[in-house]
């Protein structure tokens, strides 16, 4: 198997485990709330806390990956978020819960910006959609299996009598689940460090990697465009100022903010919605897994859609068309859910929303790779930063809207956010690199 496929596959596994650690709390939120004595608003704030620091650290950690290489940054990130996940099993209060969620956001923040830089180094432009889709697919699979796997582990720990914490009124041994996930993540970090390299040139003999600026492309398929000679490195503030001066980056960030404001419902509040609909715990995890699995299918398809769209519509509209079409469909699905049909009609609409959201994601990544130049990690980090501010706001805002106007009103907010995403997608221009635009 070509080495670049191995690199992408291992990066996809890292993304899978990242999403398991991120999403598992949604299915354990009820027993955690019971055991820690949290109110509904405290639970919503704890769920949103992760996304705040995850958003805030996107550009700093993405810039570190651009400067020091994605291999080092991703390995340290995987090890760090795994340690934080294990520590979640030892929390004792609302403050401690918020603390570990903030730390998880910091430690996971660099994963996708660094992975985007890694993909750009190993793939030429015609493959970026598929390679990006493969990594994002790993994350979506992790998110999809997390509810089912987490519920199964919690039950298995009860059956095995493995709980060592006496103060467990809920009867669900969620603490042990977090510890097991953390230990498994440390193993993933070790595998990543051993088998992944920053670029193809790192696998060549030393004489092939010396001053030749095109060396990293010697191991690439014929016909790939060699990179231009490296310009002086920008500082973190320099990268930030560069991105902030571009219209593309503001549109890109706003699109992701609105997308995540709506989509984050699926990994934070969907179990609560199902609970209010009198769906029992085991079925809740199955439904959430099914909805998120539709996103896995969408991500897989989205890589082919992104590359085919670029060939069909060119570099300008080839990136925008999948985003606009998919986000428009998501807006319709949210509007259907807001209209108050039966429970399973709403679930069906959410399945289609999850599918379409993720068909558009590889085009989002490929757009950042197209315009990012030497600053791909920071460019994707910029979009992810604003996007995850939307995700941080999502459980808090939608909980307040639901309390005031019911779940229909919350779905209506999601529909409106997707409409704004469509407008931003129409105005994106992948033919304008950030350095040239700034």
Structure description:
The chain has 438 residues and is an all-alpha fold. The chain has one domain (3-199, 236-437): MFS general substrate transporter like domains (Growth Hormone, Chain: A, Up-down Bundle). Helices cover 78% and strands 0% of the residues. The protein has 18 helices and no strands. It has helices at residues 3-36, 40-56, 58-68, 70-88, 94-108, 111-122, 128-160, 174-195, 236-244, 247-263, 265-268, 270-276, 281-338, 343-359, 361-372, 376-405, 407-427, 434-437. It is globular, with a radius of gyration of 21 Å. It starts with a helix and ends with a helix. Residues 204-230 have low confidence and may be disordered.
**What is the average per-residue confidence, as pLDDT, rounded to a whole number?**
84
* Number of E-state strands: 0
CATH superfamily membership:
MFS general substrate transporter like domains
Instruction: Please describe the biggest sheet, giving its number of strands, its sense, and whether it closes into a barrel.
Output: none
Helix count equals: 18
Percentage of β-strand residues = under 5%
Describe the global form.
globular
Radius of gyration: 21 Å
Low-confidence stretches: 204-230
Oligomer: single chain
């Amino acid at each position: 198997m070509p080495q670049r496929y191995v690199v992408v596959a291992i990066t996809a596994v890292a993304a899978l485990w990242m999403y398991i650690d991120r999403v598992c709390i949604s299915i354990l939120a009820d027993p955690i709330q019971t055991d820690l004595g949290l109110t509904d608003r405290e639970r919503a704030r704890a769920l949103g806390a992760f996304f705040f620091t995850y958003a805030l650290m996107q550009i700093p950690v993405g810039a570190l990956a651009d400067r020091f290489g994605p291999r080092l940054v991703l390995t340290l990130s995987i090890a760090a978020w795994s340690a934080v996940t294990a520590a979640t099993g030892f929390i004792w209060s609302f403050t401690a819960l918020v603390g570990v969620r903030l730390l998880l956001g910091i430690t996971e923040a660099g994963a996708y910006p660094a992975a985007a830089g890694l993909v750009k180094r190993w793939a030429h432009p015609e493959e970026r959609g598929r390679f990006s889709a493969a990594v994002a697919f790993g994350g979506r699979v992790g998110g999809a299996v997390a509810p089912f796997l987490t519920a199964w582990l919690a039950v298995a720990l009860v059956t095995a009598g493995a709980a060592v914490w006496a103060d467990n009124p809920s009867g669900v041994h969620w603490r042990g689940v977090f510890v097991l996930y953390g230990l498994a993540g440390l193993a993933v970090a070790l595998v990543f460090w051993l088998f992944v390299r920053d670029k193809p040139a790192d696998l060549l003999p030393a004489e092939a990697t010396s001053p030749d600026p095109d060396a990293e492309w010697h191991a690439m398929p014929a016909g790939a465009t060699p990179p231009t000679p490296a310009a002086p490195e920008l500082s973190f503030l320099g990268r930030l100022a560069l991105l902030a001066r571009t219209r593309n980056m503001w549109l890109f960030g706003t699109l992701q903010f609105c997308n995540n404001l709506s989509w984050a419902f699926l990994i934070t509040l969907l179990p609560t919605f199902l609970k209010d609909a009198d769906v029992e715990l085991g079925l809740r995890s199955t439904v959430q897994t099914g909805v998120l699995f539709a996103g896995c299918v969408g991500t897989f398809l989205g890589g082919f859609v992104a590359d085919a769209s670029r060939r069909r519509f060119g570099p300008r509209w080839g990136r925008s068309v999948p985003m606009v079409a998919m986000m428009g469909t998501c807006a319709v699905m949210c509007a259907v859910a807001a209209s108050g049909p039966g429970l399973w009609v709403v679930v069906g609409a959410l399945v289609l929303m999850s599918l379409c959201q993720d068909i558009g994601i590889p085009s989002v990544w490929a757009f950042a790779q197209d315009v990012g130049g030497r600053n791909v990690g920071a460019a994707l980090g910029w979009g992810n930063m604003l996007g995850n501010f939307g995700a941080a706001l999502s459980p808090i805002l939608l909980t307040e809207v639901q309390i005031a106007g019911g779940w229909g009103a919350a779905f209506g907010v999601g529909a409106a956010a997707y409409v704004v995403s469509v407008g931003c997608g129409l105005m994106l221009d992948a033919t304008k690199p950030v350095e040239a635009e700034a």
